């Protein structure tokens, strides 16, 4: 039954939940699966409770589409009766290809599936090729649909705030090239709709299982300009510049928008190509968080992509906040895995590849492996592929930053001396990481943000968040053009607060 639920939540239409029935001879059990929990009924016998069985079948048949978990937001493609049952062997059908969605003033038509998460509990993300209805083969956009916790900051609100902030000063104009370009966003609320059971389930679990922490979710829709994957690059120096670009954009976000990404991975570092120029783009901010006065997790699950997560965050015994240096550690693992597991043609090595256990092991195992790699007294000599030989001297430089920080942390614990967790006693900093990258093959990599603000970042003002939310509500469900980011622009984040102080 769990396999059925996995297929329904991962490979079918947008579903908030699914209901299954397991029949084993005369025994019957019902299962409810959504993106936050799994609930199983007590089994009962058809022999001894036939009436219960028949009533169950009747009520399941009478469920509406929302009660079955289907969120009706798409217009399916028109299919002729002859196409519904194709002759010959059965073939896999892409339910989304040719379907349409109304995005304000723009009608989009979907194409291929670019990415699909396979899990029951989680966001259930799917990313689709999208084209304007009047240009059905122009795949200009990527449309993302997911079911994040309702308490999590909207990815669109963070990107919107960052793009508007980047237009406040001429010296920040470079940032827009390194962030996604939003075109549309919308949240489809499930709470408050009596056909969706999440609100009732939360009330029941909060009363009877208060430690469970059930998370209500929303269907979040986001459309942005289409980007290319990191592995689309074909020159080693291009990779170096893209890493340099994204490192700078990441720190600028932290300094001036009080946004910490928290999910640095190979899939989230992408490429924008404009007039022959290549820009690294920091993509996918749906796990990002604002730096507030009282930082707390916005989901009960650890955030990040396991092979690239900082070793401290992987250890379930550690109760640590996600810090800026943890994202730097993730950057290191991305560069390391790229250089040791890929060739320049974008081909990834699989069998026998370096660091395979990072992709297959449990969180505890991966944490231990990474911790040992950082603290090992042996010289750090990763198996860099020949195509990425230019990174060979850089990787030990970056590795040494984290090794020194870990040694300082151990010594601090043993001796009872102070330890600065933000920078590992000054060992892991943006400046040192950037300096290591700039040594790449004696090339002059472009640096636009050489002087960051001191750590830790100042928390974002609550009034800023409220104003951002007002602007977001005004734009939700509307198709955006380039001028949308300039209309009525006001200082936000740190720039907004400094202006208020001068007044």
UniProtKB/TrEMBL annotation:
PROSITE patterns assigned to the protein according to its UniProt record, in alphabetical order: PROTEIN_KINASE_DOM, PROTEIN_KINASE_TYR
PANTHER family: FUNK1 11 (PTHR38248:SF2), FUNK1 6 (PTHR38248)
Region spans: Disordered: 450-477
MF terms (GO), sorted A to Z: ATP binding; protein kinase activity
Domain Protein kinase per the UniProt entry, residue ranges: 115-434
Protein name (database record): Protein kinase domain-containing protein
InterPro entries for this protein: Kinase-like_dom_sf, Pkinase_fungal, Prot_kinase_dom, Tyr_kinase_AS
Pfam name, any one: Pkinase_fungal
